[in-house]
Design brief:
Blueprint lengths: L3 E5 L6 E2 L7 E3 L2 E2 L25 E5 L2 H7 L5 E4 L10 H4 L1 H8 L5 E6 L8 H4 L4 E8 L4 H7 L6 H13 L3 E9 L6 H8 L5 E6 L7 H10 L1 H8 L1 H16 L5 E6 L5 E4 L2
Parallel strand pairs: 1-5, 3-6, 6-7, 7-8, 8-9, 9-10, 10-11
Antiparallel strand pairs: 2-3, 4-5, 11-12
Helix pairs in contact: 1-3, 8-9
Bound molecules: iron/sulfur cluster.
The site of iron/sulfur cluster has 10 residues, from loops.
Amino acid sequence: MELKIIKINAKRAFTKTKIPGANYVINQYVGCEHACLYCYAKFMCRWYKYGKWGEWIAVKENLPEIVKRENVKGVVCMSSVGDAYQPIENKTKLTKRILENMNKKTKLKILTKSDLVLRDIELFKEFEDIEVGLTVNDFDGKLKKEIEPFSPSNERRIETLKILNESGIKTYAFISPIIPKLVDVENLINETRDFVDFYWFEFLNLKASGKEFRDWLKQNYPESYNLISDKDRAEKYIKEVVEIIKNSNISVKGICVHYPKRVICKSY
Ligand code: SF4
Protein backbone atom coordinates (compact mmCIF):
# COMPACT_ATOMS: atom_id res chain seq x y z
CA MET A 1 0.00 0.00 0.00
CA GLU A 2 1.47 3.33 -1.03
CA LEU A 3 1.65 5.95 1.69
CA LYS A 4 -0.67 8.90 1.04
CA ILE A 5 1.00 12.21 1.78
CA ILE A 6 -1.24 15.20 2.29
CA LYS A 7 0.47 18.57 2.36
CA ILE A 8 -1.23 21.17 4.49
CA ASN A 9 -0.55 24.62 5.87
CA ALA A 10 -1.17 25.19 9.57
CA LYS A 11 -2.39 28.47 11.09
CA ARG A 12 -0.29 28.10 14.20
CA ALA A 13 2.43 25.85 15.57
CA PHE A 14 1.57 25.38 19.25
CA THR A 15 -1.75 24.13 20.63
CA LYS A 16 -2.74 23.91 24.30
CA THR A 17 -2.78 20.36 25.62
CA LYS A 18 -3.78 18.31 28.65
CA ILE A 19 -1.01 15.77 28.02
CA PRO A 20 0.61 15.06 31.42
CA GLY A 21 3.80 17.07 31.87
CA ALA A 22 3.12 19.50 29.01
CA ASN A 23 1.25 22.75 28.36
CA TYR A 24 1.45 22.86 24.57
CA VAL A 25 1.87 20.42 21.75
CA ILE A 26 3.38 20.80 18.31
CA ASN A 27 2.42 18.28 15.64
CA GLN A 28 4.24 18.68 12.35
CA TYR A 29 2.88 15.30 11.24
CA VAL A 30 -0.65 14.04 11.73
CA GLY A 31 -0.60 10.30 11.08
CA CYS A 32 2.16 7.79 11.62
CA GLU A 33 3.96 5.26 9.47
CA HIS A 34 4.81 3.22 12.55
CA ALA A 35 1.15 2.16 12.55
CA CYS A 36 1.04 0.70 16.07
CA LEU A 37 -2.14 -1.34 16.39
CA TYR A 38 -2.94 0.15 19.80
CA CYS A 39 -2.16 3.78 18.86
CA TYR A 40 -4.41 6.20 20.77
CA ALA A 41 -4.08 8.81 18.01
CA LYS A 42 -6.12 6.73 15.55
CA PHE A 43 -9.10 8.91 16.41
CA MET A 44 -7.60 11.47 14.01
CA CYS A 45 -8.97 9.29 11.17
CA ARG A 46 -12.39 10.77 12.02
CA TRP A 47 -11.26 14.15 10.67
CA TYR A 48 -8.59 13.08 8.21
CA LYS A 49 -10.52 10.69 6.02
CA TYR A 50 -7.68 9.28 3.94
CA GLY A 51 -7.87 5.63 4.99
CA LYS A 52 -6.63 3.43 7.83
CA TRP A 53 -4.19 4.67 10.45
CA GLY A 54 -0.67 4.20 9.08
CA GLU A 55 -1.69 4.59 5.43
CA TRP A 56 -1.55 8.39 5.30
CA ILE A 57 0.30 11.35 6.78
CA ALA A 58 -0.66 14.99 6.80
CA VAL A 59 2.49 17.09 6.63
CA LYS A 60 2.35 20.66 7.92
CA GLU A 61 4.87 22.12 5.57
CA ASN A 62 4.81 25.68 6.84
CA LEU A 63 5.62 24.97 10.52
CA PRO A 64 9.35 25.75 10.18
CA GLU A 65 8.33 29.27 9.13
CA ILE A 66 5.63 29.67 11.80
CA VAL A 67 7.92 28.70 14.69
CA LYS A 68 10.22 31.56 13.78
CA ARG A 69 7.63 34.03 15.06
CA GLU A 70 5.51 32.01 17.52
CA ASN A 71 6.65 31.64 21.14
CA VAL A 72 4.95 30.07 24.12
CA LYS A 73 5.70 29.87 27.81
CA GLY A 74 5.41 26.43 29.39
CA VAL A 75 6.43 22.96 28.32
CA VAL A 76 5.96 21.99 24.67
CA CYS A 77 5.52 18.34 23.80
CA MET A 78 6.66 17.47 20.30
CA SER A 79 4.27 15.09 18.54
CA SER A 80 1.16 13.59 20.05
CA VAL A 81 -0.61 12.42 16.87
CA GLY A 82 2.34 11.00 14.97
CA ASP A 83 6.04 10.37 15.53
CA ALA A 84 8.36 13.30 14.82
CA TYR A 85 11.04 10.82 13.68
CA GLN A 86 8.97 8.42 11.58
CA PRO A 87 10.58 7.39 8.24
CA ILE A 88 9.16 10.28 6.18
CA GLU A 89 11.32 12.62 8.29
CA ASN A 90 14.35 11.24 6.43
CA LYS A 91 13.02 12.93 3.30
CA THR A 92 11.21 16.03 4.52
CA LYS A 93 13.54 16.98 7.40
CA LEU A 94 10.54 18.86 8.74
CA THR A 95 11.31 18.14 12.40
CA LYS A 96 14.91 19.18 11.89
CA ARG A 97 13.94 22.47 10.24
CA ILE A 98 11.44 23.20 13.01
CA LEU A 99 14.13 22.63 15.66
CA GLU A 100 16.55 24.85 13.75
CA ASN A 101 14.05 27.71 13.68
CA MET A 102 12.46 27.31 17.10
CA ASN A 103 13.33 29.70 19.93
CA LYS A 104 15.99 27.83 21.88
CA LYS A 105 14.47 29.00 25.16
CA THR A 106 11.41 26.83 24.44
CA LYS A 107 11.03 24.11 27.07
CA LEU A 108 10.86 21.12 24.80
CA LYS A 109 9.93 17.51 25.46
CA ILE A 110 10.29 15.04 22.59
CA LEU A 111 8.99 11.48 22.59
CA THR A 112 9.73 9.01 19.81
CA LYS A 113 10.14 5.34 19.00
CA SER A 114 12.87 5.98 16.43
CA ASP A 115 16.65 6.08 16.46
CA LEU A 116 16.49 8.74 13.75
CA VAL A 117 16.31 11.13 16.72
CA LEU A 118 20.10 10.70 17.02
CA ARG A 119 20.53 12.77 13.86
CA ASP A 120 19.53 15.92 15.79
CA ILE A 121 21.75 15.60 18.88
CA GLU A 122 23.74 18.71 18.01
CA LEU A 123 20.52 20.70 17.63
CA PHE A 124 19.22 19.47 20.98
CA LYS A 125 22.35 20.85 22.61
CA GLU A 126 21.35 24.37 21.50
CA PHE A 127 18.16 24.28 23.62
CA GLU A 128 18.27 25.57 27.19
CA ASP A 129 15.76 23.04 28.49
CA ILE A 130 15.10 19.88 26.54
CA GLU A 131 14.15 16.30 27.37
CA VAL A 132 14.26 13.48 24.84
CA GLY A 133 12.39 10.26 25.52
CA LEU A 134 12.05 6.89 23.87
CA THR A 135 9.02 4.67 24.29
CA VAL A 136 10.19 1.32 25.55
CA ASN A 137 8.22 -1.88 26.06
CA ASP A 138 8.86 -5.59 25.80
CA PHE A 139 7.33 -6.25 22.39
CA ASP A 140 9.52 -8.30 20.09
CA GLY A 141 9.29 -11.12 17.54
CA LYS A 142 5.81 -12.07 16.38
CA LEU A 143 4.18 -9.82 18.97
CA LYS A 144 6.09 -6.75 17.76
CA LYS A 145 5.26 -7.56 14.12
CA GLU A 146 1.60 -7.66 14.97
CA ILE A 147 1.24 -4.58 17.14
CA GLU A 148 4.25 -2.35 16.39
CA PRO A 149 5.13 -3.47 12.87
CA PHE A 150 7.21 -0.59 11.56
CA SER A 151 9.05 1.05 14.44
CA PRO A 152 12.67 0.26 15.41
CA SER A 153 13.22 -2.63 17.82
CA ASN A 154 13.21 -2.11 21.57
CA GLU A 155 16.86 -3.03 21.66
CA ARG A 156 17.63 -0.22 19.23
CA ARG A 157 15.50 2.22 21.26
CA ILE A 158 17.39 1.36 24.44
CA GLU A 159 20.68 1.81 22.59
CA THR A 160 19.39 5.18 21.38
CA LEU A 161 18.71 6.26 24.96
CA LYS A 162 22.24 5.27 25.84
CA ILE A 163 23.78 7.33 23.02
CA LEU A 164 21.63 10.36 23.86
CA ASN A 165 22.59 10.11 27.50
CA GLU A 166 26.29 9.78 26.69
CA SER A 167 25.94 12.89 24.51
CA GLY A 168 24.78 14.88 27.53
CA ILE A 169 21.09 15.08 26.57
CA LYS A 170 18.52 14.76 29.36
CA THR A 171 16.76 11.48 28.59
CA TYR A 172 13.70 9.63 29.78
CA ALA A 173 12.14 6.26 29.15
CA PHE A 174 8.41 6.12 28.57
CA ILE A 175 7.39 2.60 29.57
CA SER A 176 4.17 2.14 27.65
CA PRO A 177 1.73 0.61 27.08
CA ILE A 178 1.98 -1.57 30.19
CA ILE A 179 -0.03 -4.71 29.47
CA PRO A 180 -0.20 -7.55 31.99
CA LYS A 181 1.79 -10.64 31.02
CA LEU A 182 3.27 -8.86 27.97
CA VAL A 183 5.37 -6.13 29.58
CA ASP A 184 7.87 -6.77 32.38
CA VAL A 185 8.26 -3.35 34.01
CA GLU A 186 10.96 -4.42 36.47
CA ASN A 187 13.10 -5.84 33.68
CA LEU A 188 12.70 -2.69 31.56
CA ILE A 189 13.77 -0.52 34.49
CA ASN A 190 16.86 -2.66 34.97
CA GLU A 191 17.70 -2.51 31.27
CA THR A 192 17.50 1.28 31.10
CA ARG A 193 18.28 2.68 34.57
CA ASP A 194 21.97 3.38 33.86
CA PHE A 195 21.27 5.88 31.11
CA VAL A 196 17.97 7.63 31.70
CA ASP A 197 17.43 10.63 33.92
CA PHE A 198 13.83 9.80 34.74
CA TYR A 199 10.80 7.73 33.79
CA TRP A 200 7.19 8.03 32.78
CA PHE A 201 4.94 4.98 32.99
CA GLU A 202 1.61 4.39 31.34
CA PHE A 203 -0.81 1.50 31.74
CA LEU A 204 -2.67 0.52 28.58
CA ASN A 205 -5.71 2.65 27.83
CA LEU A 206 -7.93 -0.16 26.61
CA LYS A 207 -10.68 2.19 25.48
CA ALA A 208 -8.44 4.52 23.45
CA SER A 209 -6.60 1.57 21.90
CA GLY A 210 -9.66 0.90 19.73
CA LYS A 211 -11.85 -2.06 18.84
CA GLU A 212 -9.37 -3.70 16.46
CA PHE A 213 -6.71 -3.84 19.17
CA ARG A 214 -9.17 -4.97 21.85
CA ASP A 215 -10.37 -7.82 19.61
CA TRP A 216 -6.79 -8.77 18.81
CA LEU A 217 -5.84 -8.82 22.51
CA LYS A 218 -8.93 -10.81 23.46
CA GLN A 219 -8.21 -13.40 20.80
CA ASN A 220 -4.43 -13.70 21.18
CA TYR A 221 -3.85 -12.94 24.85
CA PRO A 222 -7.17 -13.60 26.61
CA GLU A 223 -5.52 -13.69 30.04
CA SER A 224 -4.11 -10.19 29.54
CA TYR A 225 -7.42 -8.92 28.20
CA ASN A 226 -9.48 -10.46 31.01
CA LEU A 227 -7.16 -9.12 33.68
CA ILE A 228 -7.01 -5.57 32.40
CA SER A 229 -10.72 -5.28 31.71
CA ASP A 230 -11.78 -6.59 35.12
CA LYS A 231 -12.05 -3.72 37.62
CA ASP A 232 -10.81 -5.58 40.72
CA ARG A 233 -8.07 -7.55 38.98
CA ALA A 234 -6.88 -4.46 37.10
CA GLU A 235 -6.69 -2.47 40.35
CA LYS A 236 -4.70 -5.22 42.05
CA TYR A 237 -2.34 -5.53 39.09
CA ILE A 238 -1.75 -1.77 38.89
CA LYS A 239 -1.04 -1.63 42.65
CA GLU A 240 1.54 -4.40 42.33
CA VAL A 241 3.32 -2.71 39.42
CA VAL A 242 3.28 0.69 41.15
CA GLU A 243 4.91 -0.97 44.19
CA ILE A 244 7.66 -2.34 41.91
CA ILE A 245 8.19 1.16 40.49
CA LYS A 246 8.27 2.77 43.96
CA ASN A 247 10.81 0.25 45.20
CA SER A 248 13.11 0.67 42.20
CA ASN A 249 14.96 3.72 43.46
CA ILE A 250 14.54 5.64 40.20
CA SER A 251 13.27 9.12 39.41
CA VAL A 252 9.66 8.99 38.22
CA LYS A 253 7.88 11.98 36.70
CA GLY A 254 4.53 10.28 36.40
CA ILE A 255 2.47 7.12 36.25
CA CYS A 256 -0.61 7.32 34.03
CA VAL A 257 -3.53 5.06 34.77
CA HIS A 258 -6.71 5.15 32.68
CA TYR A 259 -8.78 2.33 34.22
CA PRO A 260 -10.68 1.66 36.49
CA LYS A 261 -10.28 5.38 37.13
CA ARG A 262 -8.07 7.98 35.47
CA VAL A 263 -5.12 8.93 37.70
CA ILE A 264 -1.87 10.64 37.03
CA CYS A 265 0.50 10.06 39.92
CA LYS A 266 3.46 12.34 39.89
CA SER A 267 7.02 12.47 41.14
CA TYR A 268 8.39 9.76 43.37
S1 SF4 B 1 4.67 5.57 17.10
FE1 SF4 B 1 3.24 6.60 18.46
S2 SF4 B 1 2.03 7.93 17.14
FE2 SF4 B 1 3.06 6.43 15.83
S3 SF4 B 1 1.55 4.82 15.56
FE3 SF4 B 1 2.89 4.24 17.26
S4 SF4 B 1 1.82 4.97 19.11
FE4 SF4 B 1 0.93 6.02 17.32
